């Protein structure tokens, strides 16, 4: 009843967490998703029985007056996909386990002939499914997950974006061969860097092969709370900003209807840039959009070069309340010099104030000057070894470029009031690269939000492509308004850098959103694990409802907690299963014991 792709709006969707055999529960939850604004509803179909019950769920929803399309989610059993195609408007199949057996994480060698035989088996099984879909006007989603690539793909391509894309293209080429075009593609990963890079590559490969299939975007296992929102907005937002994406799902480890408002806000924020004023920028030839590396800069103190991106906090009101876990590297205090700074903290003050108080000293105690564009003539007379320059893209004129070439000690703070601030800030750095400037760049992102969720979504969406393109040497996140404290804004800035995999400041949780396959109470379990481990900086913990993506998406996690059966949990160290079928009520304590036994646990201070 809706279109995806072409000139259609970007659609938002979610997935039920109820048992697909429970018609009443599925209908009730689907209706909550729809009332929240969901335009598609996906349900897991583990077996034939669940697939057949889609008929009852579909009929009840239609009887209740809802025409929202239903999507069947199929893993491990191609026969189930055949049945689901009779009763759902769309069927999602996973190339990693459609005909290939479950991944065993072992190196398996395939000769060219064996590899070709596997592809022939795939075609022989997939074509009859497409015929069923054609007959019943059922759409297909080719849904690749980074965590469930087949051993066959892994043997030839490894755990790479190229392998993920090829896993998808094998199926798309069959669709094209069979002239079946009602296809949507998703490529998802819990690692935002992998997700963005792979979708960009897929779009390029499709272009090379003359394909124009619409894209479904999502960061899988994004987590809950602020982590899930920031990580999703960062990854999905970066791609939407590039014009990629026709439908999205924000995967949160929360009630599915809670995902819809977040997705809607993200889409609306990006779409409002449509028809924005022209930005006269051009990408430089040395920039590799499909495989970007960090821009080469000259380090100035601890900014740029090989240093981690810095966080600059804005404290124009004199507030010196900080969260010890998220201590910024610098504080911008405008025209005031704090009487007392936290130990080791350095502040940034307006250049004229700095010059007035420096009395000719070139290295004042813990304070550095910040110049505005109209103060360029005074920059050369300042002897500080670290200087900041607030600048816009249009302010990067010939005078500014000439000044920066003689002053490598200047760190640029990129600011923009353009409706497409991401585009203008990108243009600034590309112009710098064109001119051969190596000065580090910190991005100044300013908002006036009263709701933290809005700040998280917008700031992450604006920073996403800047981080993934390798352009970010730091972030200055500023929010005007009294409802969100400075230290909460600081935490958001650190969260954005962590979600972009460029700076770690806290425990990272790779937790799935749950579905009808989930084998334990996901939300309460996540809360218990976070309460016990949230202070362990730099640790990655995977919390998975079932085995579908579990070990795969946890590939770079330090520890994993995976549903193994109803009320049973298996614990992992990296990809290795350490203990199986632990009763759920004992599993969190066993996880802590495992972390302690490997020397990765520290008591709270």
Account of the protein in words:
With about 600 residues, the protein is an alpha/beta fold. The chain contains 18 helices and 21 strands. The chain has helices spanning about 25-35, 50-65, 80-85, 110-135, 150-155, 160-175, 190-210, 225-240, 260-270, 350-360, 375-380, 400-405, 420-435, 450-470, 485-500, 520-535, 550-555, 585-595, and strands at about 10-15, 40-45, 70-75, 90-95, 140-145, 185-190, 215, 245-250, 310-315, 330-335, 345-350, 365-370, 385-390, 410-415, 440-445, 475-480, 510, 540-545, 560-565, 570-575, 575-585. The strands form 3 sheets. It has an 8-stranded parallel β-barrel with strand order 1-2-3-4-5-6-7-8, surrounded by 7 helices. It has an 8-stranded parallel barrel with strand order 9-10-11-12-13-14-15-16, surrounded by 4 helices. Strands 17-18-19-20-21 form a 5-stranded mixed beta sheet. The longest helix is centred in the N-terminal third of the chain and has 24 residues, at about 110-135.
Helix-strand layout with pairing:
Layout: E1 11-15, H1 23-35, E2 40-44, H2 48-63, E3 70-74, H3 78-87, E4 90-93, H4 112-135, E5 139-145, H5 151-157, H6 161-177, E6 183-188, H7 192-208, E7 215-217, H8 225-241, E8 247-248, H9 259-271, E9 310-314, E10 330-334, E11 346-350, H10 351-358, E12 367-371, H11 376-379, E13 387-391, H12 398-406, E14 410-414, H13 421-434, E15 441-447, H14 452-468, E16 474-479, H15 486-499, E17 508-511, H16 522-533, E18 540-544, H17 550-553, E19 559-565, E20 568-573, E21 576-583, H18 584-597
Parallel strand pairs: 1-2, 1-8, 2-3, 3-4, 4-5, 5-6, 6-7, 7-8, 9-10, 9-16, 10-11, 11-12, 12-13, 13-14, 14-15, 15-16, 17-18, 18-19
Antiparallel strand pairs: 19-20, 20-21
């Amino acid at each position: 009843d809706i279109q995806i792709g072409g000139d259609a709006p970007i659609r938002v969707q979610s997935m039920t967490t109820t048992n697909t055999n429970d018609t009443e529960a599925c209908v009730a939850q689907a209706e909550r998703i729809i009332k929240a604004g969901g335009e598609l509803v996906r349900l897991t179909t583990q077996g034939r029985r669940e697939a057949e019950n889609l008929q009852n769920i579909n009929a009840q929803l239609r009887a209740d007056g809802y025409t929202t399309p239903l999507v069947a989610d199929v893993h491990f059993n191609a026969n189930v996909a055949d049945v689901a195609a009779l009763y759902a408007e769309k069927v999602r199949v996973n190339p990693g386990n459609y005909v290939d057996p479950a991944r065993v994480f072992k190196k398996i060698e395939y000769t060219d002939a064996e590899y070709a035989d596997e592809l022939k088996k795939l075609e022989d099984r997939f074509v009859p499914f497409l015929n069923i879909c054609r007959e019943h006007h059922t759409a297909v989603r080719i849904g690749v997950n980074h965590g469930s690539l087949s051993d066959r793909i892994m043997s030839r391509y490894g755990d790479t974006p190229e392998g993920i894309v090829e896993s998808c293209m094998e199926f798309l080429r069959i669709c094209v061969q069979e002239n079946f075009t009602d296809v949507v593609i998703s490529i998802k990963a819990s690692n935002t860097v992998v997700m963005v890079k792979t979708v960009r590559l897929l779009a390029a490969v499709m272009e090379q092969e003359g394909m124009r299939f619409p894209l479904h975007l999502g960061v899988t296992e994004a987590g809950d709370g602020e982590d899930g929102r920031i990580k999703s907005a960062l990854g999905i937002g970066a791609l939407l900003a590039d014009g990629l994406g026709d439908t999205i799902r924000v995967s949160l480890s929360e009630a599915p209807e809670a995902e819809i408002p977040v997705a809607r806000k993200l889409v609306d924020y990006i779409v409002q840039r449509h028809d924005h004023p022209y930005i006269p920028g051009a990408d430089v030839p040395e920039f590799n959009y499909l495989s970007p590396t960090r821009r080469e800069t000259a380090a100035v103190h601890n900014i740029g070069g090989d240093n981690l991106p810095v966080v600059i906090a804005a404290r124009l009101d004199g507030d010196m309340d900080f969260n010890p876990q998220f201590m910024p590297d610098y504080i911008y205090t405008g025209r005031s010099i704090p009487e007392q700074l936290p130990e080791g903290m350095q502040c940034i003050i307006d250049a004229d104030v700095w010059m007035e108080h420096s009395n000719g000293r070139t290295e004042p105690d813990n304070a550095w000057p910040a110049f505005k564009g109209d103060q360029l003539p005074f920059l050369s007379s300042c002897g500080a070894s670290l200087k900041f320059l607030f600048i816009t893209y249009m302010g990067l004129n010939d005078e500014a470029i000439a000044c920066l070439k003689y002053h490598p000690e200047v760190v640029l703070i990129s600011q923009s009031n353009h409706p497409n601030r991401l585009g203008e800030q990108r243009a600034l750095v590309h112009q710098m690269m064109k001119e051969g400037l190596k000065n580090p760049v910190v991005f100044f992102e300013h908002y006036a939000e009263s709701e933290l969720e809005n700040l998280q979504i917008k700031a992450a969406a604006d920073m996403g492509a800047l981080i993934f393109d390798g352009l970010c040497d730091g972030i200055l996140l500023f929010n005007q308004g009294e409802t969100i404290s400075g230290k909460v804004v600081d935490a958001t800035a650190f969260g954005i850098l962590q979600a972009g995999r460029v700076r770690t400041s806290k425990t990272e949780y790779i937790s799935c959103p749950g579905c009808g396959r989930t084998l334990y109470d996901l939300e309460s379990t996540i809360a218990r694990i976070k309460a016990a481990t949230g202070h362990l900086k730099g640790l990655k913990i995977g919390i998975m409802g079932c085995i579908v993506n579990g070990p795969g998406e946890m590939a770079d996690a330090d520890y994993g907690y995976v549903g193994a059966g109803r009320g049973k949990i298996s614990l992992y160290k990296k990809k290795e299963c350490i203990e199986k079928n632990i009763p759920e009520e004992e599993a969190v304590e066993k996880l802590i014991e495992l972390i302690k036994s490997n020397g990765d646990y520290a008591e709270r201070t």
